[in-house]
Structures
1.
Amino acid sequence: MNSDLIKKIIEGALLAAGKPLDLARLESLFEDEERPPRDQIKAALEEIESDGRNRGFQLKEIASGYRLQVNQELSTWVNRLWDEKPKRYSRAMLETLSLIAYRQPLTRGDIELVRGVAVSSDIIRTLQERDWVRVVGHRDVPGRPALYATTKQFLDYFNLKSLEHLPALSEIKDFAELDPELELALGVGASANVSLGAPAANDEVVANENDVLDEDPTFALDQQLDGVVPTDPEEEPQPSSAQDHE
């Protein structure tokens, strides 16, 4: 099978699928006797990516695979196709999601210690309903609080291939404008490398010594221990009784 036909088949499949396709799924488009080598499929993807650089769409590799999408700089015009306005997310929700993304896995109590206010149950529920956050284990302390981490859907939504592609905190100006203390708190846990994807059998998830993770976590961590509570009660910041609202 010639390379032009392979490219057309892959491009057509990506347009028709309506969702990201990984390499294994793209390979399944071909019968055994006609299936091209994976290198040839990757070369076709590179050509499609190159073709889109001067067009209104682009090929993007994200956590779940490859997808065709509108170039971001055209969003102002393309969004006029829909009457519904884009959703706006509250500062409280974005701060909560950011803490989970940069310092996962962590508990609701960990988030409250950093933010200094109680975390609304509505925020956690909304993040879970959107499939951006899920429970990956529990901390082995009284009450066994749930440990939260981000999902592949979170990465897909924010156009990321892995957690390693999260923007550096120095590039996110909004945090410094909204809350310098939050930016500092995030920076403590975000300085090390973090990656998401099914870990190999010998991968080790680094977390709090009391964290008990689920048996097949779909993320791997290599970062500072999180959720460490000061031993002196007088030094421990006390969350406010006020609830965050979206």
Note: Residues 3-81 form a domain with the Arc Repressor Mutant, subunit A fold (CATH 1.10.10.10).
2.
Amino acid sequence: MAHDIDVHGDNPAAARTLAHSLRHALLAAGARDRSVVFACIGTDRSTGDALGPLVGQWLVRSGYDRRQVLGTLEDPLHALNLRERLDPVTLHPTRPLVVAIDAALGPHNSVGLISLRTRGLRPGHGVGKSLPIVGDLAITATVNIAAGAYDAHVLQSTRLYVVQALARTIGVACWDAMQAVTPPQDAPASLVIA
């Protein structure tokens, strides 16, 4: 059963809805028997592309072990280091379940939409990069409109407020979903979804 969903980040129940679907997708993918790693793709050098590192930073600050989170503001996971940082994880004999998180561009009416897909994602595809598919599950948020040849410029001129709000919603949802799967060690017992 697919657990794919789309929820608008402005919806007051967005974090709860995403967490519910992510929890079921993680369990269906075997998260009780495998560790879970969040691959938070992007760079802080472009406002729109900072979604992944912002989510990663949020998760680490919330108590997740840095080994469970690839990609933060301090140590981003991006096109230049993607293979180098992901290969040791995905080729390990006890391969963890990877949740890929990345920003997306789309039509005007999809800006602010958060999507969960029960398959990996191809980072950089929207800006013409040829990178490998990442993840067993994928969370994307549409941060701005697609503009064809101007996509890189659109990402650079995206409002930080929009990206930060979407990143917080995704971070809270990931945290909440993981509490039902396997609580991280030394992390606070609960987190209220706002």
Note: The chain has a mean pLDDT of 88.
3.
Amino acid sequence: MRKPRQHRHNRPQVFNEYDEYTWIGTIVNCHGIQGELKINPLTDTPEYYLETTHFFIEQSDKLIPFQVERMRFHKNQWIVKLATIDDRDTAETYRKYRVMLEDSQLRPLEEGEFFLHQIIGCQITDLEGTFLGKITEVLQTGANDVYSVAGGKQSFLVPAVPDIVKEINIEQKTIRIDPIPGLIE
């Protein structure tokens, strides 16, 4: 069983993927009148990124670089002042945009850790190797993550707990589960 994830990714829709960039947060609002942004971090270690010097913001399928002037962590959100965003009206235009970071700037993973975005698209099989579907979304429930699976005979949810999820192989994009009775109708 793999260790807990570093990044939380809830994907209610399909997003562009970038080879050398990771979705690190989402701009949810502005803060104050000087153009600061409130960003929901998609990481279990948001403090690690407080020294980040630049982010990329996804605009119309393009990644636009922005220099970070200052950044702090407050009430489970980053409050970020980016260069060239100097007023509340401009900051408002960035609401709901994705914030990306170069993969080289990510916190190094420990042995057995993985990013949640890496399991989107993984094939789910039972212990006998029968294909059951692919992970389409990771839901955050508070107690544990839940994988939404579709593309097999039917859609279903898999609690990400050791009794059910037996093996995760990120390199092969496969996850083996031991489905409990009633998990798959």
Note: Helices lie at 88-92.
